[in-house]
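During the no-cost extension, the postdoctoral fellow (Dr. R.K.) reprocessed legacy sequence entries with the updated structure-token encoder. One reprocessed record is reproduced below for audit purposes.
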Amino acid sequence: MLGSLRNWPLFFSQSFRHLQPGGWIECQELDVWLRTDDGSLPEGSAIGAWCRNQEEAAGKVGMSLRCTGEGFAGQMREAGFVDVTVKEFKLPIGQWPTEKNLKEAGAFGLMAMLGGIEGLTMAFWTRFLGWKAEDVEAELVKVKREFQTKAYHGYWPAYVVYGKKPEGVAPDTS
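Re-encoded structure tokens follow.
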């Protein structure tokens, strides 16, 4: 839902209000800021520029594509949820990982990015950053090329955060 909600604290408070006592909420989100643990992605990369432009465009409509598990957890606790748990994962882009499960996930992640990056980018950059469509397309050629570079060991930070509405707290019926 990242990129579709402007007010996460409101979302969590509304969810809390309408859940039955003992009910659970879970969010699974990716931070749209590619990371590496080994510094393999150069400072001036097209991928880094893509991440920055995505966040800038989202900011122009009052949203953010950045998230942390602890950030969501704090907002859930603030809304009243208990037993809040954060699980962090790394979703690789490409088949660079040595572990079989991550290598397979990376292959799917790469396919998803190569096939869907225009849909994630075109409206944001043309409507909110003032780019021409042909300039977006040219930039995305560079980004796709970098995503396919096996020397870059990039991954999306992924967070699964869940919490429970305490027993004895009635749902809001209004």
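The longest strand covers residues 82-92. The chain has a mean pLDDT of 93. The remaining legacy entries will be reprocessed before the final report is submitted.
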